[in-house]
């Protein structure tokens, strides 16, 4: 079945006892056993496993499953995207191991690995090199004998650089080197990393998958059952598991993921075109624009271009502030992927945990603005941007 059908049905079959069409929210923290070690059903304790969470895990695994594949994929749900990331790093890395990571990776991922305020995994003896995954040549020299994980974000946040997932997975992936892709920006509707050869697809379900800015969560999907079991062990051991109600909310969002993504993209494309022709704008970055340096790769590995775009204003920080204080329909807030349009200033907001030098090296300047384009009317959104730019 196609993804729009799987979004609504996979893992969400009607309850055979009650006939309930939508998944039940099972709040019980513990489950009865007949005799020690012999539970009545499939569950013992809700951190280890819970019926509502299991439904969500199957639902998301159904979304990431490569079309036409005959093998099942395996999903795991977490209390946040970073909960998923933390669990993967703990499961796959030990002291003296090495990993590679996209250089303009999500700020929270960077903070977790080597961030300046607390050294995260670096303090446990894990080394990380940040590389520009858009330039595959730069990867070759960085791979070491002890490299265990390649963490790819594509497109990246906020600069929408892309990595050729298939090429990197083919060249560098192996049993010893796991390829994980943070697929938050595209969602499984527009990009399927597992179909491109990656081992793990990771999500902040807080974003497009939940889609309504009302629940924080994370998830990952693997093709390999062995890898699934390895990470599932750490899911239970670390305990960053989601509440049943949050699982329900996330599943509710997934029903409409395909229709939302189509609308996000349609609006983003119109806005990108509008901004590109605006006198107050120095440069627009959107994978759907022919001016994007990796537009061809975007067309090859994604089935759409998503709802995220970034642009540089003309002027400096005062102009950026004036623009951000004058938007009315766009809300100035962190996060992305909800039905409502959001705007933010990466240098001061989402990417504050990077050092000033690395922000500068990446191009996260004071005039860079990031938009999460919602599903409102495109003309209303354009009118709002226009009046704020004029201000
Ligand atoms: C938000 C986000 C995360 C972290 O997810 P949380 O749910 O906030 O913990 C990771 N990666 C990307 C690309 C994100 O946008």
Q: What would your notes on this structure say?
A:
The protein is α/β, with parallel strands linked by helices. The chain has two domains: 3-254, Aspartate Aminotransferase, domain 2 (3-Layer(aba) Sandwich); 258-390, Alpha-Beta Complex (Aspartate Aminotransferase, domain 1), CATH 3.90.1150.10. The protein contains 14 helices and 14 strands. It has helices spanning 3-9, 51-64, 81-92, 107-114, 137-140, 165-172, 187-190, 225-238, 244-255, 257-276, 295-301, 317-326, 356-362, 378-390, and strands at residues 33-35, 38-39, 74-78, 98-102, 127-131, 147-153, 178-182, 200-204, 218-222, 281-285, 308-313, 331-332, 342-344, 368-372. The chain has a seven-stranded mixed beta sheet with strand order 3-9-8-7-6-4-5, sandwiched between helices. Helix 2 packs parallel to helix 9 (244-255), helix 3 (81-92) packs across helix 8 (225-238) and helix 12 crosses helix 14 (378-390). It is globular and about 75 Å long. The protein starts with a helix and ends with a helix. Bound molecules: pyridoxal-5'-phosphate. Residues 80-82, 106, 108-109, 153, 157, 182, 184-185, 204, 206-207, 216, 218 line the site of pyridoxal-5'-phosphate (PLP). The site of pyridoxal-5'-phosphate (PLP) has 16 residues, from helix 3 and helix 4.
């Amino acid at each position: 079945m196609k993804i729009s059908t799987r979004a609504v049905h996979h893992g969400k079959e009607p309850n055979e006892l009650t006939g309930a069409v939508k998944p039940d929210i099972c709040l019980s923290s513990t489950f009865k056993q007949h005799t020690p070690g012999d539970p009545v059903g499939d569950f013992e304790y809700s951190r280890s496993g819970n019926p509502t969470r299991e439904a969500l895990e199957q639902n998301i695994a159904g979304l990431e499953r490569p079309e036409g594949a005959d093998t099942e994929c395996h999903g795991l749900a977490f209390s946040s995207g970073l909960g998923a990331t933390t669990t993967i790093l703990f499961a796959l890395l030990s002291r003296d191991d090495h990993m590679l990571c996209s250089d303009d990776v999500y700020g929270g991922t960077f903070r977790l690995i080597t961030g300046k305020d607390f050294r995260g995994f670096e303090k446990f003896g894990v080394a990380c090199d940040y590389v520009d995954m858009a330039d595959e040549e730069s990867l070759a020299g960085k791979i070491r004998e002890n490299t265990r994980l390649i963490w790819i974000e594509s497109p990246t946040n906020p600069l929408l650089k892309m990595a050729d997932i298939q090429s990197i997975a083919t060249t560098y992936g192996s049993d010893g080197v796991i390829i994980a892709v943070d697929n938050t920006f595209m969602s499984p509707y527009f990009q399927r990393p597992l179909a491109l050869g990656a081992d793990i697809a990771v999500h902040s379900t807080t974003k497009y998958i939940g889609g309504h800015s009302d629940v924080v969560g994370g998830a990952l999907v693997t093709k390999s059952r062995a890898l699934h079991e390895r990470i599932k062990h750490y899911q239970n051991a670390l305990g960053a598991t989601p509440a049943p109600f949050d699982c329900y909310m996330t599943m509710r969002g997934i029903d409409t993921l395909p229709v939302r993504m189509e609308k996000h993209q349609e609006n983003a494309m119109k806005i990108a075109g509008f901004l590109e022709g605006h006198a107050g704008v120095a440069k627009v970055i959107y994978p759907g624009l022919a001016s994007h340096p990796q537009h061809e790769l975007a067309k090859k590995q994604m089935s759409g271009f998503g709802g995220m775009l970034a642009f540089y204003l003309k002027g400096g920080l005062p102009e950026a502030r004036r623009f951000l204080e004058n938007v009315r329909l766009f809300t100035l807030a962190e996060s992305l992927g909800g039905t409502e349009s959001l705007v933010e200033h990466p240098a001061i907001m989402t990417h504050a945990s990077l050092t000033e030098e690395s922000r500068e090296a990446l191009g996260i300047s004071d005039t860079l603005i990031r938009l999460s384009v919602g599903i409102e009317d495109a003309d209303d959104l354009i009118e709002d941007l226009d009046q704020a730019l004029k201000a």
